[in-house]
Amino acid sequence: METKQLYLYDSYRREFEAKIEQTNGNVVALDQTLFHPLTGGVSFDTGFIEDDGAKRAVLRVEINRETKEITHIVDAPGGLRAGDKVRGSITWDRRYRLMRLHTTAHLIAAIMYRFHDARITGGQVDPDQAKMDFNLPRTDREVFEDAVAKANLEVQKKTKLKIYFLNRDEALKIPGVVKLAERMPPDVKDLRIVEIPGIDLQADGGPHVNNTEEIGLISLLKIENKGKTQRRLYFTVN
Ligand SMILES: [Zn+2]
To answer: Considering the chain, what is the average pLDDT of its residues?
Structure first.
């Protein structure tokens, strides 16, 4: 059964209430959740689910692409029963780093495209660092140093993000709204649009900061060559 994705509506909310739809060993499905699953190139949230009788640590969160059911893998089976009301809380330090790193990925992808004609081909945001793959024939580090420097300038501009829903047909008319062809947005009526005014606009279900200034200092960690025209950038934020 499809889980209502509360994290789409407020990246800053940390606690929620829900009803257990079903449990299977240490796997728990709720009717709604704030836990962001491993999807869209962004890692999952961790935290806790509890009712009056049991408190379980959430170790991993996944989403079924077809059914849109989100499952929480908890630290031990038992104690939580279908039909029970529970309280959930996400680990904020981890989530906030995902938000800062993921918003940085938007900046860098937009800058790489605009200034270096490099298209993003994939990526993954984890709490400690993020990696991004680009189609780029050049092999020198300078391109990425320049992109990170430009992204840091964007942070200093303190740009406020806009996040809103648009009718799917209208949204798909916007040039470049889908950056990764293999990540076409789900078949839903309204698409969630994430806009960094003056920089980037795309259909996106991930968690973001409200203002680029929250990102802090972006640092380039390393560059890897992945074949003739594939470059992988690793970066973090402090
Ligand atoms: Zn995003």
So the answer is: 94
- Closest-CA residue to 103 (of 181, 168, 186, 11): 11
Q: Which residues surround ligand 1, an ion (CB under 5 A)?
A: 194, 204, 206
Consecutive H or E run containing 60: strand 55-63
CA of 163 to the centre of ligand 1 (A): 10
Measured in Å, residue 109 CA sits from the centre of ligand 1 at: 11
Q: Locate 114 and state its tokens.
A: 């605009």
The pLDDT assigned to 209 comes to 98
Please tell me whether residue 155 adopts helix, strand or coil conformation. Answer: helix
Q: How confident is the model at residue 184 (pLDDT cuts 50, 70, 90)?
A: low
Q: Which residues of 68-101 are buried (b: 16+ CB within 10 A; e: fewer)?
A: ebbbbbbeeeeebeeebebebbbbeebbbbbbbb
Contact (CB, 8 A) for 190 and 168: yes
- What pLDDT does residue 29 have? 98
The predicted structure's pLDDT at residue 158: 98
CA angle 49, 51, 56 (to 5 degrees): 35
